Sequence to fold (101 residues):
Amino acid sequence: MSELIKDGDQATIKPGIDVVASMAEDFKNELLSAINDSKEDFIIDLESVEMVDSVGIGVIIAAHNTLSQDGRDLKVINVIKDVYGLFTTMRLNRRFSVEEA
Fold:
């Protein structure tokens, strides 16, 4: 289960485990539920995450698309170097903010 922290005009969600196919559906449901229940910008904090696969990237892109339709922003923070490389190779850092750990 992810941790959700609301602070003023933004909300932070921490998956706490790798964002991979085996857990992506649960994380997607938690994330989209949190997005729909709030009006804040969103931060996905990947501090405890060592791996993100293509399914996990899809979940993050879906969150970005949902937020953008509502005029809100997504930021992904505390991304380890290998995962950061994946985000930049896919040029996702041009669609939303991605910060290396």
About this structure: The CA atoms of residues 18 and 49 lie 5 Å apart. The helical segments are 21-36, 54-69, 81-89. The beta strands are 3-7, 10-14, 41-45, 74-79, 97-100. The chain has one domain: 3-100.
